Amino acid sequence: MRKNLVLLLSLIVGVNQLYAQIDHSDYEITGFVFERDAQGKLKPLPGAHVFCVKDQQGTVTDVQGAFVIQTDHAYPHPIMASFVGYESDTIEVKKAGEIQFILSSKTLDEIKLLDRQKTNAKSLLQVKNVEWISASELYKAACCNLSESFETNPSVDVSFTDAITGARQIQMLGLDGVYTQILFENMPLLRGLSASYGLNYLPGSWIESIQIAKGTGSVVNGFESLSGQINAELFKPQTADKIFWNTYLNSAGMMENNFIFSTPVKGDWQTALLGHYSYLGKSVDHNDDHFADDFQTNRVSLLNRWEYLGFDNRHIMFGLRYLTEDKLSGQISADDPDTDAFEFARPYEVDMHTEQAEFHSKMGFIFDKPGTSLGLISSLRYHNQETSFGTSRYSGMQQSMYLNAIYQSNFGDDSKSYKLGMSYYGDNYQEKLKLRANDEGSYERYDQTLGAFGEFQFKKCVRFSSILGMRADYSRQWGMWYSPRLHLRYNPLENMVLRASAGRAHRQANVLAENISYFFSSRELEMDDYEDLEAEKAWNYGFNFTYNFYLLGKESTFNMDFYQTDFENQVVVDVEQSQRIKMYNLNGASYSTSLQLDASIEPAEGWEVKFAQKWNETKTTYATDALTSTYVPFVAKYRSLVQLSYTSWQDKWDVNLTLQNIGPSRVPAQGLGEEFVEEFWSPNFNLLSGQLTRRFKKFEWYFGVENALNYLQDNPIRSVDNPFSENFDAAMIWGPVMGRKWYSGIRVRIND
Amino acid sequence: MLSTMTTAQNKSKKVETAKIQTSAVCEMCEELIVDKTLVFEKGLKFAQMDVETGILTVRYRNDKTSLEHIRSIISKLGYAADSVKADSVAYENLHFCCKAPHD
What we know:
The complex is a heterodimer. By secondary structure, chain A is mainly β. Chain A is built from three helices and 45 strands.
């Protein structure tokens, strides 16, 4: 407590020192906007919108949270401060001078507010189309991992990839999750071999908030992000609870434990240890096809973070992460007493082992000139994966290095600011694939990319701003990559915003790791030379419209997103032909068009209803039918979502129900001889999930259900009785492969 | 337990609103009284603190709790509530900012 007070005092002293230099005129209102963090300390809040209620003249706070408003109106003068994710506040100013706002954050200080807070918000002031999801929104679903945390969110679709691993993948704007750049605090999280399945490796309880940016991303974060950017902020030593513990158990017998400890260490260091352990002792088969639906799992993940708080103008943070996972799946052998006496001479077994280690660091230097800083980011990663399935084997090893330096400053004031920087990506991949009786193939690559970027932000007035970014990267294999990007924002009205964006992105595909699901079949790999698979390039452009209005006295939102991605080159993964998986460079058109409409209303105090409807048209030219483009398989043509949630006063009770309707997706023709299945469109189906959370003084308890209607895809595995036959295929998945699942858990926080 | 049940039978179930003058002076007091304590009290439907005046507005179910009980909870935290004096031990343990009105 004493430390907090010292901090507060030093802040106020700092405020006075700063403002001693400024000449107060009669028409100038100055001040600061602060927020209170989890420990109750006051922290400056940069980027908050401060404006005069009478004439809507306003400004945005700088890095120190300071603002200056010029006004020629007579006093008294109501001044309002607002910031996305924070409660707005209004102060009646009687004479020119200094005022102070303390805004309550909805993430860190969620119990502070009297009004119900929105846990899911879209800023009207940000230039990019960013949706912000707080930890409270994540708590609405069990969110065992990052992929599941999107199940209550209409912007990101979650799908199953195969009937063997149970791994979930995401789709955004109608495109596979590998085209979305997934970051962890603006550092690469899932690059390379872990792009498809890595989402399952980030425990939901570690996540503080998620930002989803649709369309082209910032050049600062790299040349990737074809369809969007997802950034997960994890709990930091400063923001984490002293002790947090979460335990979860579901009806399949899966147990999960997550914990966070944070503590100050001698000499101004602060550390946090984040841990995760999940365990399922045996494989379970619900649909009696003798293939496991829930898999024997053993996963341990640890993250140790360090932060140095001793400097005012420097910021140092680093962390170490380690993960190990073993999964056993496939045909349940006959000696298991829980299954009927079905004898397999050779069971089709799937055994997966994954190991990841990572070091990352961030350093920030703040210079005397306001708004000027230098950031240095580095990360080193190691990923190793060994998979055996039936008589086939896959192994993949990745060593990666990432460096990024960003210098940020402005031309005079913050209406024209810029970021300049350089980055380096080095990735070494060694993959081996042996399919059945074939020879083992070896696939090696050493990617190196050195790039420079510049991003310029112009704010013409409160109503209009733009960001222009340019990136040039030199890839060792493919030469120069240019990635120009533009974002525009216009507020025609205070509560309405129009955004447009356009940009180009590049990506090097890791075709084997990303499509490992398709190898859980009898397919033969047909590929041009591995070295000939070119880097993927695409343009993405689109616009967004957000309108906040009052309905029945409550804030309501309407939102529309329209985005189009056009590929210049893509590595096409073609499963159109029976028993073949082909990989080649795109020859023809490939695009994805996505339209999303969503609205949320508050019919009564504490209640919220959300509707979303989305249409995707995702087509690629497959060489089998080179003249026209065809719908990409397993991308639903449309999806709708209705969500009803109720939160009682001070979040004591929280009930949430989400109903999703998933439209048809194309399933390619498959099989030979008598087992031939013609191409078809999967049927519409509904997914219902819900959760109840009760907050007690010392802990929270939650109880929920997934796939409550118990909808299951018929025959998820083709030729399931004969996994070594030519028609075996476990990757033709368009619907859920796991049935209704109940779960319950508790979260405990100790801060005293 | 028995006595509360009998009072519950005597009175009709009703949500009552009342104002309590407390000695709370800052947001830290508000957090301790409202967010950390009263939220979890049985029968309390709503509580709002005016930090400027120290007046606490409460809505509660009179069959599950009583105004006297709410006052005694506040007292145990170290604050005066209407005529009920603050628990002296709890008061001593308060943060010094919460002890005396400051300007």
